[in-house]
User: Fold this.
Amino acid sequence: MSVSRPLKAGIYAPSLPSSYRGLRISRSLDLPSFEDHVLRTATAGVGPLLSGSMGEASHLSHAERSTLIKTARKVLDNAGLVSVPIISGIGAGSTRECIEFAKEAADAGADCAIAICSGYFAGALAGNTKALKAFWVEISQKSPIPVIVYNYPGAAGGINLDSDLITELAVECANLAGVKLTCGDVGKLTRIAATVSDPSFASTHPRKNKDAPFLVLGGFTDFILPGAYANGHGAITGLANVAPHAIVKLFELSEASKTDPSLLPEAQRLQGIIARADATIAKASIAGTKFLLEKLYGYGGSPRRPLPPIDPAAAEALWEHSHTRDLVRLEQEVSGKAR
Assistant:
């Protein structure tokens, strides 16, 4: 199966599976709220990434991951957003299961996959460049859809890929479509982009699918503007679930300011507001983001166990924090929707 919807530079959000119905540990997905969420963010210009870290991938069964892909594809197509690609997480404890997830994602309608190396055996893998390279090489070779490398030390037992390895993978693996840098390393982004954003890269190292170029994406919103000037390609960020219009606007201004410097001060203003909010809201993790979604949009709920819901006092402090309030006002300003 080939990508039929081009993967482009921009903003993507690791969409949450939204709230869960029922009080039991085996609570089912709230698909109506999930549909609303996918549509709300996509109409703001944010692409969906399903079954990622913030999407509680480790709490989802094989069947649930496929259900989310099928549901998202249906709601996007029904809204006329047929060209919006779906990225799906395929992270698992073994290479074999990652490949199984990739095949299932393709069958369900995903256009691209994103893979993180499990941190369960980080003690043996973290310093073994050969083994880490082999992991992504094998997945990229056996996945029926393009694969994005997911570098997130916090969710991989401290495994942190360096720019040399990522660049080597980009050069050698034609079915790799990018990297998400949730390590937050702007220098790493700069070094990788120096290779893959060079005009000669596409012709020298063509992708298996021409609609899936190698994108260098940040994992936070606090360096979208600096990343643009280093020839990065945007971000996959949980904060885009909360403030999609504002973050898309920041990306657009950042790109446009490279040819129109008069736009730079406004891009810097938005970057400051969004960066402060990202740092504050990230501390509240998945439960905090779900709380904000509930507060702002009427859905969100709690994470699946063992993740706890946000403490009521912490939730109130997060809502009243000046960084959160500034972000909410900015989102209202950009979207034209005052609350």
In short: Residues 50 and 291 are 19 Å apart (CA to CA). The mean pLDDT is 94.
